[in-house]
């Protein structure tokens, strides 16, 4: 069961909303927890026991940490809790990477996400930034298993999970869900037609134009797939009264590679910052060069979190090298002229594009070969013809995807200014577009052309 | 939504809730909840705990969605307006400039198919049994023009040329229907539906006449080919009446509907059909399930008209004295086998993809005393053995 499936949309969600809103206030979190278990069961029955055991174990450790005064015991409990959670994740990732068992070919649904939430929960309780006294245990269990976040995040923090159901939040949630649904089905899934084909093509059938088209479309597809998912997750959270942290902020508008990660998968970047980078000493370490060791550890771990294969490690290393480079040189802030700043932005996007190639490639050698073909001339006229066909057929979707990378909504807000009438008119235009896009997206789902979420594999 | 447009957000939310609950109430929620529960119980009881049924329930749910046809047509309309001709390329569905759905096929060396066919031919010859290989075309005879249209390679005609020439050189009697179509000045795509990979019923009649001629030429039969003249048949045309298997994926609003023509002999016929229930007496008309196309169902739920013709197993034609033929068939032969049965005493059909590897074809042929074996394959069967997951993987498994 996933957010773009009809069973979720037209069976699970209506039942969940009705049951949740008619339940007594003190029972609402129990209802949501039960719904989350049902959601997970239909998504991954095979691993429901693992999820339940990990939740019980983590909550038990968390509660013990919060009730014990002895520091050494608290630390021991924290370390055991973190190691157990990370150990299970690492074991599954290893089994898949090294094909240990034919029974384990894909990760248990959401394990990378609920493991990281478990670590943040334990660490926050240990640090005292989260006070468990007075909060029911069900709240902890719900934090770890909430169906809106279980599949691919965002990696929200325990302290931010506060239920405040109100009509305004619900309406915002619906709009956000519709936007995410349309982004996923109408942009990500349609662009995947191009990327699936290009990334399945042997390198000897490549040409520069074809490679550029495939890689740019993949950069766009991944953005709309994951940000679409995040929009839906945020929207569903709001429908049930919970605010949820933002996960994307127009990442391709970034000025530099370092700042890209403050705009892309923000909850993951912040998780690594708070639970790995800062505990290692962050940037306030002596000697100053140790900061690069910290960055190296963070980026290697980020790569491994996505997958234990060479291309993900190279992907993480690539970011380590360029973020270190920007830190050493002070770029792009040192650039004063506008053309140079623009040139650096273009270079940043090019670098990110190459990184996504490594991310998507079936192997490191394929990824490297793909990147080298960005600069090779075509030897086959048929590949050139194919590039033209794909570009002309999917031009509308590519152009819309490119335009929506810009902060269109903020721009429109600025244009409507302080005029209430203009803002209302824009709101209705936006609502009309959302509803129309949702209807079209639904038609594509019914005709059977939707794909699973890319980030559900991590 | 911006802070300033609360009313619009409220309207959107109201629309969404209305849609959600209308969809929920209208699409048999209790039935689907029971189905989901049953699958859950089944999965709990199974060894591996996999819920294999949920995706099937999801598909069933989509099929019974209210306004399903309208929604499919909406998606089709958009892909048509944007002229996306390979939206379902992953399902090997491509739309040509003149509105035909075609498939593209990879290159194969044909060695496997050649060895299997030639060895079977030699075996049959040693046992005094005739064999004819019939190559049935796809919708295009020039791979290059289609490749150029989509920028993708297709090798189906070149694969067929390779196999057909090899078989001819090895002395195997071959009927290559592409040659017949060319000799008669036909445009090969006219033999086919636009929205389905199968050929039409009149095309089946046309091919049957040529195959019957092959029986005369290569197997010593003396069939009066005039039985296949048009005046001996009644043609009933249903214009814009159905959507083929690939067309349903693309949507009627994209590709348009296909015509369907029913063809029945005007002369009297008398058969004994060997079907699953035993032997039953009947006429040619009993080979056609007219309820397939005389239906009130919409084009997305109606059965495929092509399969309204079906000679299941085999038959004995009481009006013909001699000839016992085995046809190794694919689904194109739903509309050839019935017409060939008009010319021989006994006709049996086998589809090798339906049989497992324990089936001994050679033993079966000898034991049943056939005088002729016709291998009648669409040319995209060539190379299917390169992909172990293909449903046609075993089509050339002749026991070599």
What structural category do the secondary elements of chain B indicate?
A: alpha/beta
Largest β-sheet summary of chain B: 8 strands, mixed
Amino- and carboxy-terminal Cα gap of chain B:
68 Å
Oligomer designation: heterodimer
Could you report the average pLDDT of chain B, rounded to the nearest whole number?
Answer: 92
The assigned structural class of chain A equals mainly alpha
Which geometry of chain A do the CA atoms define? globular
Question: Pair with the most extensive interface?
Answer: A-B, 66 and 62 residues
Low-confidence stretches of chain A: none
**Over the alpha carbons, how many angstroms does the gyration radius of chain A reach?**
23 Å
The percent range for helix content of chain A is 55-70%
Q: What's the helical proportion of residues of chain B? A: 25-40%
Order of strands in the sheet with the most strands of chain B? 4-3-12-10-11-9-7-8
């Amino acid at each position: 069961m996933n957010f773009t499936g009809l069973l979720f949309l037209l069976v699970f969600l209506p039942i969940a909303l009705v049951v949740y809103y008619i339940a007594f206030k003190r029972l609402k979190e129990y209802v949501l927890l039960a719904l989350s278990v049902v959601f997970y069961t239909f998504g991954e029955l095979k691993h429901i026991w693992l999820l339940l055991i990990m939740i019980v174990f983590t909550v038990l450790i968390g509660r013990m940490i919060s009730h014990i005064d002895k520091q050494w015991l608290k630390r021991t409990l924290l370390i055991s809790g973190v190691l157990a959670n990370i150990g299970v994740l690492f074991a599954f990732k290893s089994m898949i990477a090294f094909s240990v068992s034919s029974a384990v070919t894909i990760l248990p649904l959401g394990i990378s996400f609920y493991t990281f939430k478990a670590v943040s929960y334990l660490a926050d309780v240990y640090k005292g930034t989260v006070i468990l006294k007075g909060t029911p245990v069900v709240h902890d269990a719900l934090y770890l298993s909430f169906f809106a976040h279980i599949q691919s995040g965002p990696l929200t923090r325990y302290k931010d999970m506060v239920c405040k159901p109100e009509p305004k939040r619900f309406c915002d949630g619906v709009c956000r869900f519709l936007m995410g649904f349309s982004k996923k089905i109408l942009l990500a899934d349609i662009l995947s037609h191009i990327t699936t084909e290009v990334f399945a093509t042997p390198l000897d059938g490549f040409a520069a134009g074809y490679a550029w088209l495939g890689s740019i479309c993949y950069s766009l597809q991944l953005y709309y797939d994951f940000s679409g998912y995040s929009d839906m997750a945020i929207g569903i959270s709001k429908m049930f009264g919970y605010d949820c942290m933002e996960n994307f902020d127009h990442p391709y508008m970034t000025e530099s590679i370092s700042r890209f990660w403050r705009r892309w998968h923000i909850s993951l970047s912040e998780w690594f910052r708070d639970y790995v980078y800062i505990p290692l000493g962050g940037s306030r370490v002596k000697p100053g060069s140790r900061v690069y060791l910290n960055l190296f550890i963070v980026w290697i771990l980020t790569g491994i979190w996505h997958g234990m294969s060479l291309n993900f490690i190279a992907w993480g290393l690539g970011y380590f090298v360029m973020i270190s480079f920007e830190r050493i040189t002070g770029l792009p802030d040192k650039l004063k002229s506008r053309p140079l700043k623009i040139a650096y932005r273009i270079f940043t996007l090019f670098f990110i594009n190459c990184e996504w190639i490594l991310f998507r490639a079936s192997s490191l050698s394929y990824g490297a070969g793909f990147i080298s073909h960005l600069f090779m001339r075509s030897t086959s006229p048929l590949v050139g013809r194919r590039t033209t066909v794909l570009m002309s057929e999917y031009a509308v979707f590519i152009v819309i995807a490119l335009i929506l990378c810009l902060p269109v909504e903020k721009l429109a807000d600025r244009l409507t200014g302080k005029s209430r009438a203009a803002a209302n008119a824009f709101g209705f235009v936006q609502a009309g577009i959302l509803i129309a896009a949702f209807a079209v997206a639904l038609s594509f789902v019914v005709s059977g052309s939707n794909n699973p979420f890319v980030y559900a594999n991590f | 939504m911006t802070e300033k447009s609360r009313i619009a957000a409220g309207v959107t939310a109201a629309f969404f809730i209305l849609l959600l609950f209308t969809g929920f109430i209208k699409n048999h929620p209790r039935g689907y909840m029971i189905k989901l529960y049953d699958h859950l119980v089944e999965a709990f009881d199974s060894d591996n705990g996999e819920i294999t049924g949920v995706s099937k329930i999801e598909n069933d749910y989509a099929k019974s969605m209210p306004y399903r046809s309208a929604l499919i047509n909406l998606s089709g309309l958009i892909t048509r307006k944007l002229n996306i001709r390979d939206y379902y390329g992953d399902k090997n569905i491509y739309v040509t400039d003149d509105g035909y759905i075609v498939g593209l096929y990879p290159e194969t060396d044909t060695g496997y198919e050649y060895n299997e066919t030639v060895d079977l031919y030699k075996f049959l010859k040693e046992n005094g049994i005739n064999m004819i290989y019939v190559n049935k075309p796809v919708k295009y005879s020039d791979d290059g023009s289609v490749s150029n249209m989509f920028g993708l390679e297709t090798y189906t005609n070149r694969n067929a040329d390779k196999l057909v020439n090899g078989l001819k050189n090895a002395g195997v009697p071959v009927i290559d229907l592409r040659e017949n179509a060319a000799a008669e000045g036909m445009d090969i795509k006219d033999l086919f539906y636009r929205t389905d990979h199968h050929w039409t019923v009149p095309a089946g009649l046309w091919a049957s006449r040529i195959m019957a001629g092959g029986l005369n030429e290569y197997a010593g039969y003396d069939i009066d080919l005039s039985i296949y003249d048009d005046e001996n048949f009644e043609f009933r045309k249903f214009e814009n009446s159905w959507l083929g298997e690939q067309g349903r994926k693309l949507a009627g609003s994209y590709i348009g509907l296909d015509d369907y023509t029913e063809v029945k002999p005007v002369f009297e016929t008398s058969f004994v059909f060997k079907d699953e229930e035993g032997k039953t007496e009947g006429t040619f008309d009993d080979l056609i399930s007219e309820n397939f196309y005389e239906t009130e169902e919409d084009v997305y739920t109606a059965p495929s008209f092509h399969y309204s013709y079906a000679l299941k197993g085999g038959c004995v034609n009481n009006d013909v004295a001699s000839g016992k033929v085995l046809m190794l068939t694919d689904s194109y032969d739903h509309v050839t086998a019935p017409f060939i049965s008009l010319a021989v005493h006994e006709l049996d059909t086998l589809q090798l993809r339906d049989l497992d590897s324990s089936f001994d074809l050679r033993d079966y042929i000898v034991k049943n005393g056939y005088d002729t074996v016709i291998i009648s394959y669409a040319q995209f069967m060539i190379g299917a053995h390169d992909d172990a997951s293909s449903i046609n993987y075993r089509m050339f498994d002749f026991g070599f």
